[in-house]
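Researcher: For the record, we're logging two predictions in this thread. I'll number them. Prediction 1 follows.
Model: Prediction 1, sequence and structure:
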Amino acid sequence: MRTIALLTPLLPLVASAQMLVPTVITPLNTALNETSGLVVLGGEVWTQLDSGNPNALYNIDPASGEILRTVTVMNATNVDWEDIAADDDWLYIGDFGNNGGDRINLRVYRVALTELLDPGTTEILADTIRFAYALQTDFTAAGNNNDWDCEAMIAVDDSLFLFSKNWVTNTSYLYALSATPGDRLAERRDTIDAQGLITGATYDPSNGAIALVGYTDGLYLPFVWRFAGYPGHAFFQGIAQRNTLSSGITQMEGIAWAATATVYLSNEQSILNGARLWELALDLPTGIFTSPQATIQAWPSPNDGHFTVAVNDPSLLEIWDARGRTVWKQALGAGENAVQADTLATGLYTVRVGPAGSVFRIAIQR
């Protein structure tokens, strides 16, 4: 029997899935009760605290939750540090918490990884990216009642990407922001119905997977989103999957890839529980998505790089890897076409066929 993947237009392909079960690794040191972001750097786990706390970065022991090292960012102020992210050269600190929607001093600080990861470093200087939202014209204060808040960020290629925390609509906007110091504008690129408040983000450069964490407005019931198979930096335009977490009422704030298919999570202290570090198995989103209008079929999946695509009309086939790069192109004729993508490595790929942008996922296994 052949397995057929039916295609849909190039829109977020959202899969509903079962509840996921995170595991508590350890309580965190009480000095970290307002942990708000996570990042893993060379095997080391780092966090920062949010509004009104020290302008410092903390290296923590993931087994005990104790602080191994504190690095103060000397020329920065912690107005509301909400997330941290890293690329090959820099750690970025998102001072963009904006519950009132009225901030005019949004910042991202960046510090050199080589200096931060030096065991002898206790103080460090930062460059500053000052920014505003290109579309914001009204700065009237509206506490927890605006769509200009943000607590989640990733660094990809030469840019930062912010995922907003929209109190009014429970959606999330995707913003692109230059990673170069100076005065910048954050440009809105896309929107997704987050079904809650997004509070953290993480990016895995090994496969392009993105995960967001958040909780439902008012109830603090945590969830995660996963994104993969997207073209370029259009993160919401591939496969998207949302899962609730079985942790109960928890103000989950931080998320970071610990390894392929595993993330760390952290939550702030609340009246119900203290700050804790969690672990969660989290692989790439998968599934077969169908549309009654689909006129393109592909099979089998998984495959070894050889598969068949059937189309009604001559079309162009493009295959993207997990980072959105085009790795294969092929002209298709009407009817069944053999695709022999022998050079592609094992992994998950997105395939687009035809000018309408119909997409589907192919898993290559050898």
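Researcher: Logged. Prediction 2.
Model: Prediction 2, sequence and structure:
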Amino acid sequence: MAILFCSDSDPPDAWREVLVAAFPRMPFRVWPDPGRPEDIRYALVWRQPHGLLARLPNLKAVLVLGAGVDSVLDDPQIPDGVPVLRLVEAGMAAPMAEYALLGVLAFQRGLHTYLDRQHAVEWKREPWSPAADWPVGVMGLGVIGAAVARRLAQSGYPVAGWVREDRRIEAVEVFAGRERLGAFLARSRVVVNVLPLTPATRGILDAQAFACMPRGSYVINIGRGAHVADEDLVAALDAGRLGGAMLDVFREEPLPQSHAFWRHPKIVVTPHAAAPTVLEAAATQIVDNIARLERGEPPLGLVDRQRGY
């Protein structure tokens, strides 16, 4: 039985070295050359072509090369009964928290304004306000979202989190349930999105959400591009409803050159760079999960297909 690697962004060589060393009796194959489909026992994927998994009749598990699993679950032909396993943190929490803090600091200290004034050769200071005056809201308090919230709270920001089900995190005010989303947005001068993408969260940052936020507030998206209604975001920025946005994920990646986000003066675009997968940590989890499955033990990071994470 063999392992199939399929990713639109991760080079296979380092993964081949790790997995061949761990499982020398399992050939490592790379899409689009899978060999005999019936030989494939495990599929390591990131944005695999739809229909690929359905062509592997002896597939025992799908191991996703990231924390988000929407690209797998969006495949209408994904085989029933085959477990989908996601990476649990795998070294991504710290860089995600750094990115969120970078964005909040940039908005708090008016960095975008100073960059504009530098280009205009203009010496003029902006009024300063302390972190205590910048309440931040973090959407999603899983392993990564909780790390983001804690890092911001440690930096002096009043932090709240919005989640589906209530939970407790030290120094973080928690708003639980859809009925409390409006109140959460209304108290947040900066909203940081770290939600998983599910049918319930797709397009959640739309005109209605922006209307709940304080005028001149900001959005940082490190969840998934489809959480944001693109046209609504541009309209809210143009109308002054929002003061700015920092976006690392997009509905289509790479972001098309014609997209309005590239040229909007109030938007910072980064190329899905907030937290690249750390090979060592990710490989340790994936090797452990394959070993568990081979021993007949429950794997870690099992995705609930109904919830979408």
